[in-house]
Amino acid sequence: MILTVTPNTALDQVVEIKHYVPGLRLDILKETECIGGKGNLASGFAVDLGAKSVSLAFAAGRNGRRLAELLRERGVRADFTAAQGETRRIVVIVDEEREIQTWLVPVSLRVNRRMEADLERRAARWLPKASWLALCGSLPPGCSPRFYYRLCHRAHQAGVPVLIDSRGPALAHALPARPEVLRLNREELELTLSERIPDLPALIAALRRLVAEGVQLAVCSLGPKGAVAVTGTSGWRFVPPKIRQRSSAGSGDAFTAALLVWRERGADWPEAIRWACAAGAAKALEARTDHPLDLATVRRMFRRVQVRKL
To answer: In terms of DSSP bridges, do strands 235-239 and 227-230 run parallel, antiparallel, or are they unpaired?
Structure first.
């Protein structure tokens, strides 16, 4: 079972339009309410790929209850800690002509130390059944910057490996706990390291520095350009097939889900990351943030992902 944690939950309201022009009346082609939040999405995609998943999160208000309902409908066990305020409702504007997205992100819910302790207790109950723990996304207001560090430490006490998909202080504070896998995009990597990464050699060097901190695998996803991954002894560049992308929103979480599902099944790193690239590409074919992954499409993409050793 893949256990995910999403401290900063969201419902996504995906609005599809032909062409986004600020200041004009824009006709909506389609509007969909979706699961949001990195870990919640990863849990849903893991279930699509045939795994079991439990989603832990802070959630609040009507949006939090609706999110739990959507996850249950997807086949994910939602075990949420009640927080203050309201779970975010993020508006994702999908521009079909330009194949780009715009996110409108409201103020988050709030948590305190008592709520953190409650979620940590829930994690302790689920960890003995878990094959992986995925710590995903930003931390909401009031949350300790060491929250991921404590969860990573608990997972290792239970013998469970950890993937972190985060950035900035939340990730920096967690690194001393030595998570097994870091997954970032280029922007998140630059924010975490406080430096610009202009080219592939700089990107590889940055990932190697993270591996030197004790991480087994550091992987940077590059959207339609694929991914770069580094371990202590090897490195790879993954190039996915060219597609007509409808929305990349959720593709990184499909990447995370497939990576963990295939590691759970015994794949080595190159094979697991190749499946991850395939899942990310399959998700990008659809506008909905949480559009279910079609396994046949993922397999077709997998056959077309190129792997190059660094």
So the answer is: antiparallel
